[in-house]
């Protein structure tokens, strides 16, 4: 049976894989790129929660990456941390366009790919810390 940290890693990896697949979509649009960014947010969120589990801290049901980073007690380079905190803008409480509570930025393939690449960098860093 996999350990709780292995389960969190598998779950986070699935989000990273989903973002990668969305970026390779044959017919992408701005929603495709936004969903890829959302999956990147989710991958980081789950990696921070994985660290919390590994350190026997209570995992609370919040999505604010800055707060989770503080609670996890982990370390990132200042540029990585700034990126992680900026990723909060891509969290969507609902993925239905008529229930969105805030306007989201329109992303291009180039923007979304950059987000994915930076997320992958943070993902690896967090993986090495737990």
Automatic annotation (TrEMBL):
Record-annotated HEPN domain positions: 9-122
InterPro entries named in the record: HEPN_dom
Domain of life: Bacteria
PROSITE patterns in alphabetical order: HEPN
Natural source organism: Candidatus Uhrbacteria bacterium RIFCSPLOWO2_01_FULL_55_36
One Pfam family recorded for the sequence: HEPN
Protein known as: HEPN domain-containing protein
Residue stretches spanning the membrane: none
């Amino acid at each position: 049976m996999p350990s709780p940290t292995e389960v969190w890693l598998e779950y986070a990896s699935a989000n990273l894989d989903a973002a990668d697949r969305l970026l390779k979509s044959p017919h992408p649009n701005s929603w495709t790129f936004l969903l890829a960014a959302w999956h990147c947010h989710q991958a980081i969120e789950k990696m921070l929660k994985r660290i919390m589990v590994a350190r026997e801290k209570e995992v609370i049901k919040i999505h604010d990456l800055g707060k989770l980073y503080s609670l996890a007690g982990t370390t990132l380079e200042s540029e990585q941390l700034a990126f992680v905190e900026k990723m909060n803008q891509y969290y969507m409480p609902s993925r239905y366009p008529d229930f969105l509570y805030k306007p989201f930025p329109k992303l291009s393939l180039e923007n979304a790919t950059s987000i994915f690449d930076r997320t992958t960098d943070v993902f690896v860093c967090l993986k090495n810390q737990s």
